[in-house]
């Protein structure tokens, strides 16, 4: 699936001061990604604070992005749950007009076994009319999806096309690349190790830092895909301090600070998340001022 090779971004949900969805800013952010050569957009992922959105607000976010995008970029819809039957029911009842795939996180909190993860995603694959990208993020879910489980799913379900691998473990990433089918997409979910993953054979990234600095990060990924290693690493090291900073006090607090300094949206989050403190906010401002090309 070449449309998911390169740089995808996990788009935030901008809020007004009263914490309502800022539709105008959301449209602006979509245009910002398109203008700066991002390859695809992930809608209603973790970075979108989707856990705090009502069903009506999720629909508003989806429709706003679909209408603003106008088919210019592929769109991936975040759909995950720790309740398999509820997720299957949601998938079957969802209107996927305008979307090209779903991104489905491994069940969280329940801490299922590998057999449980396999059975969960088997049901998701059977229910989905769209391609499915798995999402492994043990730091949030509490359990790791092992390489053998992913490989088995990739081999047995044609519509499971890739994985967003966010364990932050380069060895696991390389084993995924080695042990899954050649056309299976191993996508970085960790901005700091995106370039080495790409150079090892990965398909690209679903990124947070890239939505704030889309031109620089997507250029880095493209250089990596074309094996222009020295040029790619020059950009990696330029952006590395910002990658550390945006996750220092949680996601999406850091990237929302970046967007506020770029005057693309307000620096508003929903509880239990709060804005970064003044010290980090100032450091992010300085980085934006130095790298706002």
TrEMBL record:
Tell me which residues this entry annotates as catalytic.
Answer: 135, 164
GO cellular-component term (any): cytosol
EC class (word): lyase
Pfam families given in the database record:
DHDPS
Provide the protein name: 4-hydroxy-tetrahydrodipicolinate synthase
Does the record carry Cytoplasm as a key word? yes
Q: What is its EC number?
A: 4.3.3.7
Q: Could you tell me which species this protein originates from?
A: Psychroflexus salis
The places in or outside the cell where this protein is found are: Cytoplasm
The annotated pathway is:
Amino-acid biosynthesis; L-lysine biosynthesis via DAP pathway; (S)-tetrahydrodipicolinate from L-aspartate: step 3/4
Main localization, broad class? cytoplasm
Subunit arrangement?
Answer: Homotetramer; dimer of dimers.
**Keywords on record:** Amino-acid biosynthesis, Cytoplasm, Diaminopimelate biosynthesis, Lyase, Lysine biosynthesis, Schiff base
Query: Which terms does the record give in the GO molecular function aspect?
Result: 4-hydroxy-tetrahydrodipicolinate synthase activity
Instruction: Summarize where pyruvate binds, as residue positions.
Output: 47, 206
Q: Name one GO biological process term.
A: diaminopimelate biosynthetic process
Record's function text:
Catalyzes the condensation of (S)-aspartate-beta-semialdehyde [(S)-ASA] and pyruvate to 4-hydroxy-tetrahydrodipicolinate (HTPA).
| Site (Part of a proton relay during catalysis) residue list | 46, 109
What this protein catalyses is:
L-aspartate 4-semialdehyde + pyruvate = (2S,4S)-4-hydroxy-2,3,4,5-tetrahydrodipicolinate + H2O + H(+)
Q: Which CDD domains does the annotation name? A: DHDPS
């Amino acid at each position: 699936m070449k449309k998911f090779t390169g740089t995808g971004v996990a788009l935030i949900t901008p809020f007004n001061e009263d914490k309502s969805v800022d539709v105008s800013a959301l449209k602006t952010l979509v245009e910002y990604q398109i203008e700066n050569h991002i390859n695809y957009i992930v809608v209603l992922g973790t970075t979108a604070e989707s856990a705090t959105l009502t069903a009506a607000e999720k629909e508003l976010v989806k429709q706003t992005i679909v209408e603003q995008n106008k088919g210019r970029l592929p769109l991936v819809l975040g759909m995950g749950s720790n309740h398999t039957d509820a997720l299957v029911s949601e998938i079957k009842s969802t209107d996927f007009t305008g979307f090209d795939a779903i991104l489905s996180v491994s069940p969280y909190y329940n801490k299922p076994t590998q057999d449980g993860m396999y059975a969960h995603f088997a049901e998701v694959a059977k229910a989905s009319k769209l391609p499915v990208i798995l999402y492994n993020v043990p730091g949030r879910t509490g359990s790791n999806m092992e390489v053998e489980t992913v490989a088995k799913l990739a081999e047995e379900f044609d519509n499971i096309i890739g994985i967003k691998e966010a364990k932050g473990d380069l060895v696991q990433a390389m084993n995924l690349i080695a042990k899954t089918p050649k056309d299976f997409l191993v996508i970085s979910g960790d901005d700091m190790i995106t370039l080495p993953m790409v150079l090892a054979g990965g398909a690209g990234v679903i990124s947070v830092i890239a939505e704030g600095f889309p031109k620089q990060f997507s250029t880095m990924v493209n250089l990596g895909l074309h094996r222009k290693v020295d040029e790619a690493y020059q950009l990696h090291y330029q952006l590395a301090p910002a990658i550390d900073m945006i996750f220092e006090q949680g996601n999406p607090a850091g990237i929302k600070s970046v967007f506020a300094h770029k005057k693309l949206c307000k620096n508003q989050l929903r509880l239990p998340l709060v804005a970064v403190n003044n010290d980090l906010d100032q450091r992010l401002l300085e980085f934006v001022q130095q790298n706002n090309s």
